[in-house]
Amino acid sequence: MNFRTNNNAPDQSFQIAPMIDVIFLLLTFFVASQIFSQWETEIDITLPTAQSSEQPDRIPGEIIINIHTDGAVVVNQVRMDESALDSLLNRIVDQFSDWAVLIRADKDTRYEDVIDVLDACRRADIWNVSFATTISDDGPE
């Protein structure tokens, strides 16, 4: 009597290569979408024009501070007063010493409101500050 069963079925195994491909594709998608979500632009802000304006390379993680015509300061779609902006900038500088700030002020914004944001950057010891403009339709005169 033969009590041994002849089990010739192939062993099932887990295929790791397709799983790694899927993980890398998901990782690439989320990294790319996260970078673009940080490049916030407020639609209702009309930027001033400049003849020497150029499109710089964007820095992932830079802080974009929007200033509306009424002087409202918006960061990541959250309106902030002066103390909230100071707190945010100080927390960022505590974590990262060399941080970039992009100021997007509407062309009709009062100069005083822009200076208030620049003062907040100075108080937080942020010196890498740039201003957003659009390219002028007029060529150099």
Descriptive report:
- This protein is an alpha/beta fold and 141 residues long.
- It has a domain at 38-135: Nucleotidyltransferase, domain 5.
- The protein is 35% helix and 18% strand.
- It is built from three helices and seven strands.
- It has helices spanning 16-38, 82-95, 111-123, and strands spanning 49-50, 63-67, 73-75, 78-80, 100-105, 128-131, 134-135.
- The strands form two sheets. A five-stranded mixed beta sheet has the order 4-3-2-5-6. Strands 1-7 form a two-stranded parallel sheet.
- A hairpin with a 5-residue loop joins strand 2 and strand 3.
- Helix 2 packs parallel to helix 3.
- The chain is elongated and about 100 Å long.
- The model has no long low-confidence stretch (mean pLDDT 80).
- Report mean pLDDT, rounded to a whole number: 80
Please bin the fraction of helical residues.
Answer: 25-40%
Element pattern in H and E: HEEEEHEHEE
Largest sheet: 5 strands, mixed
What's the number of extended β-strand segments?
7
What gyration radius follows from the Cα positions, in whole Å?
26 Å
CATH fold name of the domain at 38-135 = Nucleotidyltransferase, domain 5
How far the N terminus sits from the C terminus, by CA atoms, comes to: 105 Å
CATH hierarchy: architecture of the domain at 38-135: 2-Layer Sandwich
Counting helices, strands and paired strands, the structural category is: alpha/beta
Question: Strand sequence of the main sheet, in spatial order?
Answer: 4-3-2-5-6
